[in-house]
């Protein structure tokens, strides 16, 4: 396989990013006493496999069916299907990448807000907030149905933009890198760019067991700008949370199977 084909392979890019962040965590760890081999590491690798690989195999066809049904519904209503608009396809690649990153990240910021404010959605998002030791692999401890929630909100704006596959690849890779870094054991705050990009220092406060604000803080995924614009930013100097997690997490199920089922069974 040629290098160009490898770079277009999502799994190859994921492995490269994972190796890069792992090495960085070993070379310059923020929390010196945090070991690579930690409690529930094997479970988090399981979440990674489920959410990165198996979810695509199972949910990919389902998502295609939902998308096709939505398109047909719009057509019966006499509405132009968003995927035919292709608003970005004729623009330069760099413009497409920037628009996708900014526009869809704002949508994700809003969805992340809802995950904390709507009790039904919080049942699923609690899986992610059950993290008690933060590293980049913890980024993938989340319930697979979260991906469906994000997709439902991103579908129309995503297909409406109609960006090229290269723009989607570049923006998706950058978002993956920032997401992994945000959960990594690295003391990165981006200096003056902290008002633009999310960081491990800022995101750690999102995982604070103490709920700050009305429903939490620092909901940004790639960009921190949304939190500064809408008053949900919290980044104190020279401090770290006393504990990460959520209230009541001491009795939250610890097994993979129960964490997968509890949001569906909890009333």
Describe the structure.
This protein has one domain. 58% of the residues lie in helices and 0% in strands. It is built from ten helices and no strands. α2 runs parallel beside α7 (165-183) and α3 packs across α6.
Key phrases:
267 residues; mainly alpha
List the helices and strands and how they pair.
Layout lengths: L2 H5 L2 H18 L13 H36 L16 H25 L1 H11 L14 H18 L3 H19 L16 H7 L18 H6 L25 H10 L2
Helix pairs in contact: 2-7, 3-6, 4-5, 4-6, 4-7, 5-10
Shape: globular
| H-E order | HHHHHHHHHH
N/C terminus separation:
50 Å
Give the overall average pLDDT: 88
Number of strands: 0
Give start-end ranges of low-pLDDT stretches: none
Number of helices: 10
Q: How much helicity do the residues have? A: 55-70%
Radius of gyration from the alpha-carbon trace, in angstroms: 19 Å
For the biggest sheet, the summary is: none
- Indicate the structural class: mainly alpha
Number of domains: 1
Which range does the strand content fall in? under 5%
In brief:
The chain has helices spanning 3-7, 10-27, 41-76, 93-117, 119-129, 144-161, 165-183, 200-206, 225-230, 256-265. By secondary structure, it is an all-alpha fold.
């Amino acid at each position: 396989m040629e290098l160009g084909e490898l770079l277009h392979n999502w799994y190859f890019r994921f492995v490269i990013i994972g190796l890069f962040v792992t090495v960085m965590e070993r070379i310059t760890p923020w929390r010196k006493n945090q070991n690579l081999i930690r409690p529930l590491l094997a479970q988090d690798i399981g979440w990674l496999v489920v959410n990165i690989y198996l979810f695509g195999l199972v949910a990919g066809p389902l998502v295609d069916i939902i998308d096709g049904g939505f398109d047909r519904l719009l057509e019966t209503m006499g509405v132009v299907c968003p995927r035919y608009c292709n608003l970005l396809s004729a623009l330069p690649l760099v413009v497409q990448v920037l628009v996708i990153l900014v526009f869809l990240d704002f949508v994700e910021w809003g969805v992340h807000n809802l995950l904390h404010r709507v009790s039904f959605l919080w049942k699923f998002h609690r899986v992610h907030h059950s993290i008690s030791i933060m590293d980049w692999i913890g980024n993938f401890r989340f319930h697979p149905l979260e991906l469906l929630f994000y997709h439902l909100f991103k579908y129309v704006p995503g297909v409406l933009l109609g960006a090229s596959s290269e723009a989607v690849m570049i923006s998706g890779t950058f978002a993956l890198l920032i997401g992994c870094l945000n959960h990594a054991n690295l003391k990165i705050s981006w200096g003056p760019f902290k008002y633009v990009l999310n960081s491990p220092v800022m995101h750690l406060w999102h995982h604070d067991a103490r709920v700050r604000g009305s429903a939490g803080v620092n909901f940004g995924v790639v960009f921190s700008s949304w939190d500064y614009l809408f008053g949900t930013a919290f980044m104190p100097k020279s401090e770290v949370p006393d504990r990460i997690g959520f209230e009541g997490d001491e009795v939250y199920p610890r097994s993979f199977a129960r964490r997968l089922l509890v949001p569906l069974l909890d009333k």
